[in-house]
């Protein structure tokens, strides 16, 4: 079984419905990206993404292609590919080599506070009878402590994560991937089984879209989103 694990670079186009409605050019961009990975669009499941903590186990692709009110997907069926759309939030990938199980979580600050990442891990371990120490996790590109400045209101949600809060002058920054890693370690994932792309979306305008960097009055939703894919080929 061959693992597919990839976040689309900006060069392959916008992967998000910025006005909320499906748009033909976005669907075309996604399909072209899937085909470049050797994946057919009908093999892909998406999550509705509401910044919640609901995890869905996928045994077959739904007719609509996606699951409402869901921020993480898991499967143990090779040939099913799971996706998440992001533009500063983190795509977090899970896989257990040899077991055919994979997962993906859409983790922005709200999802991190709600512990979507350990929720996804627990669901995978429970549903597919895995050992936590066999699960590998990859943290994709997202907005990092260099650019993730937060308001005092947001800071209040991170009272239990003091080690991941930084002040520079009057500004406050949070290290979300640091918290994700900490949550994973506390849930029993081995240090050596966590890899982090280290990439900041806000820092890489050539490679990634960034909501925080790109939004403006004229473009309130920024310029685009990336899509991340994980799954095993049969
Ligand atoms: Zn940055």
TrEMBL record:
Gene3D superfamilies: CNF1/YfiH-like putative cysteine hydrolases (3.60.140.10)
Domain of life from the UniProt record: Bacteria
Catalytically driven reaction(s): inosine + phosphate = alpha-D-ribose 1-phosphate + hypoxanthine; adenosine + H2O + H(+) = inosine + NH4(+); S-methyl-5'-thioadenosine + phosphate = 5-(methylsulfanyl)-alpha-D-ribose 1-phosphate + adenine; adenosine + phosphate = alpha-D-ribose 1-phosphate + adenine
Keywords from the UniProt entry: Hydrolase, Metal-binding, Transferase, Zinc
Record keyword Signal present: no
Pfam families per UniProt: Cu-oxidase_4
Any GO molecular function: S-methyl-5-thioadenosine phosphorylase activity
Family, similarity comment: Belongs to the purine nucleoside phosphorylase YfiH/LACC1 family.
Descriptive protein name: Purine nucleoside phosphorylase
Species of origin: Candidatus Sungbacteria bacterium RIFCSPHIGHO2_01_FULL_47_32
């Amino acid at each position: 079984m061959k693992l597919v694990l990839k976040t689309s670079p900006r060069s392959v186009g916008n992967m998000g419905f910025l006005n909320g409605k499906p748009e033909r050019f976005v669907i075309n961009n996604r399909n072209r990206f899937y085909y470049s990975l050797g994946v057919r669009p009908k093999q892909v499941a998406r999550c509705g993404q509401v910044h919640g903590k609901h995890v869905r186990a996928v045994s077959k692709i739904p007719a609509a292609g996606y699951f409402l009110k869901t921020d993480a997907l898991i499967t143990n069926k090779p040939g099913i590919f799971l996706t998440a759309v992001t533009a500063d939030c983190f795509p977090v990938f899970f896989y257990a080599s040899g077991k055919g199980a994979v997962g993906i979580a859409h983790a922005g600050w709200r999802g991190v506070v709600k512990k979507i990442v350990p929720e996804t891990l627990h669901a995978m371990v429970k549903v597919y009878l895995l050992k936590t120490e066999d699960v590998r996790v990859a943290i994709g590109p997202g907005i990092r402590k260099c650019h993730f400045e937060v308001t005092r209101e947001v800071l209040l949600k991170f009272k239990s994560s003091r080690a991941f809060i930084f002040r520079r002058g009057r500004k406050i920054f949070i290290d979300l991937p640091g918290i994700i890693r900490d949550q994973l370690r506390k849930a029993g994932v081995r240090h050596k089984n966590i890899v982090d792309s280290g990439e900041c979306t806000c820092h890489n305008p050539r490679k990634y879209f960034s909501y925080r960097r790109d939004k403006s009055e004229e473009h309130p939703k920024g310029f685009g989103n990336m899509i991340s894919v994980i799954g095993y080929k049969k």
